[in-house]
## 1
Amino acid sequence: MRILALVATFAACTFDTSGLGFKASPDGNVVGTDSAPASDGPIQADASPPCPGGALTIDPKNFSKCEIPAPITWNFTPGAWELDTNSLTLTGPSGPISVSANTVRQEVSSNRVGPDLAIFAINQLDIPSGTSIKVTGNRGLVLVSFGGVSVRGTIDASANLQRKGAGANHISGCGIGAGITGIPYAIPSVGIAGSGGGGGGHESRGGRGGKVKDGVASQRAPGGQAFGFHSLQPLVGGCHGGDGGASGAGVGGGGGGIVNIVADTVIAIDGGIFAGGGGGEGGTDEGGGGGGGSGGAILLETTVGITVNGILNATGGGGGEGGHFGGTAQSGQNARPDGTLALGGNTVAESGSGGHGGTTAANPGDGDQATSSSRPRGGGGGGGAAGRIHGTAGWQISNSASVSPTPR
């Protein structure tokens, strides 16, 4: 809106204001005349900015409807696709296709409370069987459908070992949720070995890293603390596990990413949505195993209902096995798509095994301690905690579906 402001201060003087449509009164104040000067017409207010999201009845939890761009149509073909939340691109087997996207920052009083989000608007979200979409980037993924939602293919924002999922490892949660790094310890007459890193926390605390051996004045590296809210407001992903201790330490697994679907219709999941944590890397030589990354976040927003005949997974990754001199130990498993335990690395006698990742059925496991008394062996990394799944309408989950952790 254009605003015309006129501020005037007058001393005891007079001047001709007839051409302005104002005149000075005897006391020096400015008053309007009975007749205003000619003009080109009334001042018009600027048009309000477009708000395509205003057509939706649902109010998203973590951004305004007017931050949603105008929708376009996506036509998926079977095959592997990549959706990059950094470059805001969607690339399929035949190359990139057009997108309509916007980015938003989650803030409260100018304080960052979560990672930035990349919002993609679609006329109708229909992901057919045989179509897999890998989500990458530093921003969490938001898909807003102005029509129906049917996911018969897969959307994957999971971590892969130390490579984090989209929107994961953000300082707003991982300042306390990241697993703690293991510590190197000198064992008399044996050498230096490292304890395992702690697993990343999210819905619960991450698993603790394994000690080097009994009789050594060592403590387990703690897992990351639980953080965030079941409502996923703000929307935060998983956290990385801690690296192991000592030379040759395994790197902690990355946190699981963020997938948020918003629609006015039923959200039907017959395929899969994955936001699991990455497995911790196994140690080399005497290094401790890396802790597993915690699961991320899946938020389904609708006022109608959610049906699941497929898979929703935001579980934690397994911890890496402790190292042994002259070799490389086994890494922990990434979060398993079927929601069962992601196992920790466990192949070398006397090295500490990694802890399993957290699921609906189990809290994350602690890493085992090394047992060798004659040579340095690393402790196992702790397992990553499960993340969070939340929906804003009633759930209908079939007996054949796999959903982990339990939706809140």
## 2
Amino acid sequence: MGDKVQSLQHGGALFVLLVVLMAMIAISDDTADPSVAASIERTVAETSVPLPTTAPTTTVSITMTAAPTTMLAAVDEPAEPTTTTTTASPTTRHRSLASVTFESLERIDTIQDYTALTTQGISRWRRSIDGLEELDLVSTADGTEQPVLWLPPRGDHDQPVLVILHSWSSRYTQHAGIPFAQWAQENGWAVIAPEFRGKNDDANAVGSELAVQDVADAIDHAVAQEGVDASRVFVVGYSGGGMMALLVAGQHPEKVAAVSSWGHPTTSATSTPSPSRTASGIGATSGRPASATRATKVRSRTSA
């Protein structure tokens, strides 16, 4: 439709222009008859076709109603904090057992190289071990006080603890334990030598539940101290102390890493244990990490 309208517009325009041109020529001719010019003017007026305007258009008023829009400005907000949990194997600062030395055990192959089998007394302990502490621990089994000897560890890393158990024929001050304490001190280890109901003139002293708990309480006290590696608790016992070492390992395996149980020396070279060889074998048997599960009351005998 738009093309047809446009074609009519062009045709009408040409016709009108042609008529106007003829009229102008006639009017400009001086010889032309005035009546002819008037006649041409009338013809143009009668035959002129008014130029159509642009094609009819329909104006459509469209009202665009947009849904409400909320403009969100980009704001640099801090990201939500994220927590990353890494579960790592517990690590303890310590040195290898292979680095221990044995200078303090030179020339000592049997107890009798150092002392008599059952000799006891605190004086020689005090002379032999610098920094030795004498404490009383309150039994978690019956509330009685049991004496112990305690030597704190030294060094810039967590150290093992050596638990020294006396024989049933002596008390906790038995001199046979001194070479072990000297060796531990040489290497910076902690030492605890507990009394467990005294010597064998008391029925409770020979492997009773109370005696076993006395040793367990001593271990709990030791591993609760600063600088002690609770995963490396080593127990050595001579004669009845060897029996007690086995009882503690059997009833409290979570508290000890290894035990060394041995009897008194004999004349047989093949059966005579050497303290140096026994000490060097510590750690050969692995156990579960020690853990302090009971609160043990302690009193210093030296300050009392």
